[in-house]
């Protein structure tokens, strides 16, 4: 079983590590250690977590403390826990980011123009990066994507062509974080615009 210790013993195997957490809110410390390993893919999707007993021995805590940390990870959507079969990492980080962004926009009652303003700033930065980092071929792909946005007739076609254009612009910036964030916010923005027009994204 693969197991990497995230707190002060990176790269150590689970079997050989005698890690102990500091007293206090030990469940929070264990939660943070496991969460960090999941988000860095030290524990990738599909990986089965050690049993509660193994984790308790590893961290030097009681089984209920481990159970509390696992319960929170499950609530976060990072693991799936089933009686009799243990806990399995289920986190899809991209999906979690998308859900978080969409939830924030809805919770704050943001209007389409608010979201578009944020997108404008992000894509301005993407364009600046593209000028520095994109190849001639990539600039050509952006030009073709732009041309396709004026060759459409229906709202659905416009939405699809705009997605391609903005995705291309983000990709040729060669900034992974910008690509991810722009993708999700663009999806939300176009969804809000389509909802107002009564069209489907």
Descriptive key words:
single chain, mainly alpha, two-stranded antiparallel sheet, elongated
Account of the protein in words:
With 201 residues, the protein is mainly alpha-helical. The protein has eight helices and two strands; from the N terminus they run αααββααααα. Strands 1-2 form a two-stranded antiparallel sheet. Helix 1 crosses helix 3. The longest helix has 22 residues. The chain is elongated. The protein starts with 25 loop residues before the first helix and ends with a helix. About 7% of the residues have low confidence.
Short description:
The chain has 201 residues and is mainly α. It has 8 helices and 2 strands.
List the topology elements.
Blueprint: H1 26-39, H2 52-59, H3 63-75, E1 79-82, E2 86-89, H4 93-107, H5 112-133, H6 136-148, H7 155-171, H8 176-197
Antiparallel strand pairs: 1-2
Helix pairs in contact: 1-3, 2-3, 4-8, 5-7, 5-8, 6-7, 7-8
| Structural class computed from helices and strand pairing | mainly alpha
Main β-sheet, spatial strand arrangement:
1-2
What does the overall shape look like?
elongated
Detail the poorly predicted runs: 5-18
Largest sheet: 2 strands, antiparallel
Beta-strand fraction estimate: under 5%
Mean pLDDT: 81
- Give the proportion of residues in helices: 55-70%
What is the number of strand segments? 2
The end-to-end span amounts to 43 Å
State Rg: 22 Å
Helix and strand run: HHHEEHHHHH
Q: Helix count, per DSSP?
A: 8
